[in-house]
Amino acid sequence: MPGKTLAEKLLSEKSGSDARAGDYVEAQIDVAMAHDITGPLAFQTFHEVAGEDADLFAPDRTIFTIDHHAPADGVQAANNHNAVRDFAAKHGANQFDVGDGICHAVLVEEGFVKPGDLVIGADSHSTTYGGIGAFGTGVGSTDLGTALATGELWFRVPQTMRFDVHGDLQDGVYAKDLILRFIGDVGFDGCTYKAAEYTGSTIESLPVHERLVLSNMAIEMGGKTGIVPPDERTAEYLERQTGNDIDLSDAFHSDDDADYESVHTYDATELAPQVSKPSNPENAVDVTDVEGTEIDQLFVGTCTNGRYEDIKIVADILAGETLAPNVRMVVVPASKSVYTHMLHTGVFETLTDAGAIIQNAGCGPCAGYHQGVLGDGDICLATANRNFPGREGSMDSEVYLASPATVGASALYGEITDPRDIETNRYDDTIFAEVLP
């Protein structure tokens, strides 16, 4: 028998079986999450399955966030918020309120997820947790509601597509450019119900906040999960971020003779900054192919690129400058801690002086809910993860996806600009741990 992939090993451990790709297993859940949109339906299922007075399988490992319609943009949203608060309080679960942050940022920052965990979230970008070596995957509200009662869920063990990258990225090229290229190459559905495993010297050199970007957007090529094998850098990041000691002995790595569905090999030195054209993330091209495209709005944020390091890249480019005429910029940090760091390190002032609008932490503009939706004919360049028609507002708007560096450079000129023409910085894992005054 061939060796096993990381995904096969993890699901074998969680199911207590010798799991191979294609097998169906009942696996023990380590962490479960829902937010203000998906939570109320999950609560209904939980009550139907377990009864009104049942207990959660693990309240200390169950997390609810209010992050999508936050603050509430209508009565229904406000009622959903109250439903989340009431359910969490009744069952003793962890609950994060308006402004605390996007679920995927909060779970990592607060130390709920560790390497080797099986994490389910009622949100498609729950693949994010693979950036620290967990098996993170999105599930429907009904599945989540059942798992909240039982602590288990069935899975088909996925085949694994390996993305192996070597060499040094050019200045102005980041993890966002890598993942857009991957999606462009295999297609929007090329990794459907498969695990994307990211390996190679380039991946090993990436700071953890960039590894999270790769895992976050695995779903944009259909991935069931997207995993970066955990290493000492992962442990150091989590220990610094959470204050908890991280034991990598429970983590998993693929065997040298593991059976991959396919292997895609890249030379990082040849990768140019990428931009995904409307209206699908798979429409990835070199920035030079769309350079000069005029834009109306720039959006910096989301669970993909709303971390402090991402926003600081934009701030460094805009320091002492102003937005191009007739261009607006909306900045939405991924969490309250990112917002606080922006305040204490001057990033907030730099961006507002340049003309940007900074919102509370949350998801608002990303899915076109509020806090900066697009109107008819608007063209937006965003650090988001999706650009389907109507994703950020009007069905007649257009969204291009890019890295924070590309968005920052483009803000200076009001048109899509190659960030290699602008001085940019790559930050390591310690920047978020700056000592605040």
Briefly summarize what is shown:
The protein is built from 15 helices and 18 strands.
What do these coordinates show?
By secondary structure, the protein is of the alpha/beta class. It folds into 2 domains: 7-266, Aconitase, domain 3 (2-Layer Sandwich), CATH 3.30.499; 276-430, Aconitase, domain 3. 32% of the residues lie in helices and 18% in strands. The protein contains 15 helices and 18 strands. The protein has helices at 6-15, 39-50, 75-91, 103-109, 141-150, 175-186, 201-205, 208-216, 232-242, 287-290, 302-305, 308-318, 336-344, 347-354, 404-413, and strands at residues 24-28, 31-35, 62-65, 94-96, 118-121, 135-138, 152-156, 159-166, 194-199, 225-227, 262-267, 274-276, 284-286, 297-301, 328-332, 357-358, 379-382, 398-401. It has a 5-stranded parallel β-sheet, with helices on both faces. α6 links the parallel β8 and β9. This is 3-isopropylmalate dehydratase large subunit. Belongs to the aconitase/IPM isomerase family. LeuC type 2 subfamily. Residues 24-289, 290-414 form the Aconitase/3-isopropylmalate dehydratase large subunit alpha/beta/alpha domain. It catalyses: (2R,3S)-3-isopropylmalate = (2S)-2-isopropylmalate.
